[in-house]
Amino acid sequence: MNTAFDIKRFFPFLRWPRPTLSSLKNDAWAGLSVGMVLIPQAVAYATLAGMPAATGLYAALIPSLIGVLWGSSALLAVGPAALSSLLVFGSLSSLAVPASEQWVALAIWLSIYSGAIQFLLGAFRLGRLSNLVSQPVIVGFINAAAIIIMMSQLPTLFGVVDLFSTHPVAVVERVMDAPSHMLMTSAFGLGTLLLLALSKHFLPRFPSLLFITILATALSWALDYSAAGGEVVGEIARGLPPLVWPSSISFEHHRELWSAGLVLALISFTEAMSSCRVLARKRRERWDENQELIGQGLAKVASGFSGAFPVSGSFSRSALNLYAGATSAWATVFTLICVLICLLFFTDLLYYVPRSVLAALIIMPVFSLFDFGAFKRLLTISRDDGVIAIVTFIVTIAAMPRLHWGVMAGIVLTMVSYLYRHMQPRIIEVSEHADGTLRDRQRFDLPRLANDMLVVRIDAALNFLTGGALDHFVVEQCSRDPHIKRLLLCVGSVNDIDATGVDTLESLQITLRSMGIDLYVSAIKKQVWDVLEDAGWIQELKHDHIFMTDREAILALRSAPLAD
């Protein structure tokens, strides 16, 4: 049994349920539906990443299979994705020319590095580190990324390469001199956007993306769009992805890719993780974030060795998988059959696809990424989180094309905000409430438990961040009232203590003793007790000054005589 367990641990696809004829039928329909969407999307996202069109199909084949075999979510669609493609472009734009050999080599290494980071995080069960990219950072980055993606595709959509030139008058004059090219290109791009919007509203289950692409391609061929000066995808080699060994690059380039790979690994996994959570909730099943990290990491590495760019979990295609009735990971196998058939027999048909149509295919799904209401919601819930989201948004836009700086700024600001909040713990004077519990004395206007006694509660861990605040609060309160001879410290809310926390209690005990005040402690939790006992503080304080519960402390100290 242990051997079988070990095998399934390293090869999780062995846990797949045995398919039935009915389940295979459902999976086949769902897989074909996703495949028909994936083929044009893969080519579009390759252009978004600055990669040759064929690499989009390469990224949709072997990496997708590896991702589902070693992942934990059966219906997660792994492959080219908008955010990951944009991050690739942003990471490499200052290092090479898009679609050049150097660019492709850098993208391959970026895929391998980001995949290795994800794999190691999963292998060492460090999936929780992905939470460093907090919700405010995600909100700020995704909204900024959506704007950047749309803006980056507008020149292609309208056929004006220098649309955002610093000399707009010259651009307008040039377009007006020969408007046919812009009108023809815009007709394909805007027409595709219109048809996609209409089909999404009226025919949500129809694989409209593929059929609109086929229609546009047929029109491009019939009108001889490329001969008239229109940009098309061009030649895509038939055949399986060439398994490649990454070309050598300079050490400086490797160093540039490490930070970009880390950010890409965190962002792409956060994107995939949101899809996994939705799928798990809809299907009422569990998923393993560490196993998913391993699957995503291996998929990225496989994409690199396939000569392609980093892949990720796609929310839209995963949702389509579920919507089309997929029941298991076998749906992905049928999706890959679609991609494989296209690579082997039909790449010639992609030659005439207008690039403005690809721009529309990229822009349309991006609309669902916009959620400016999330900024208002975050500001309402927490001003700090709202500020983090806004700063992340601004830095991401300002740092374009180095988008990872926006994420890094958001993470750093999150850590600073977290430390700042925890450096100001809630420390209050409490007293006995009518219900028998200890409550905030000032809030409920309560008399002291005894005239000579101060009762203090700290609602935080006792560590290097909070120790100084506790010491300052207690000493200040005791100095104000010379009648205080006893101090009860309620630590029931303290879940953790470190060496600084122990030192705080030791120095506080010495200070109070010099002021003629006895220290009592109540409700010490086991994990805190163990640390204090190992440090010898429990023996120093003595057991008659320690109470297991606040109630026990109230009953014992309220009627106790004053200490000499």
TrEMBL record:
Domain of life: Bacteria
Pfam families: STAS, Sulfate_transp
TM region(s), chain numbering: 28-48, 60-83, 103-124, 136-161, 181-199, 206-223, 257-280, 322-346, 352-375, 387-420
Keywords, comma-separated and alphabetical: Membrane, Transmembrane, Transmembrane helix
InterPro entries: SLC26A/SulP_dom, SLC26A/SulP_fam, STAS_dom, STAS_dom_sf
Record flagged with keyword Transmembrane: yes
Organism of derivation: Herminiimonas aquatilis
Chief localisation class: membrane
Organism lineage: Bacteria, Pseudomonadati, Pseudomonadota, Betaproteobacteria, Burkholderiales
Domain STAS: 451-557
Subcellular location: Membrane
PROSITE patterns assigned: STAS
Name the UniProt record assigns to this protein: SulP family inorganic anion transporter
Keyword DNA-binding: no
Membrane topology listed for this record: Multi-pass membrane protein
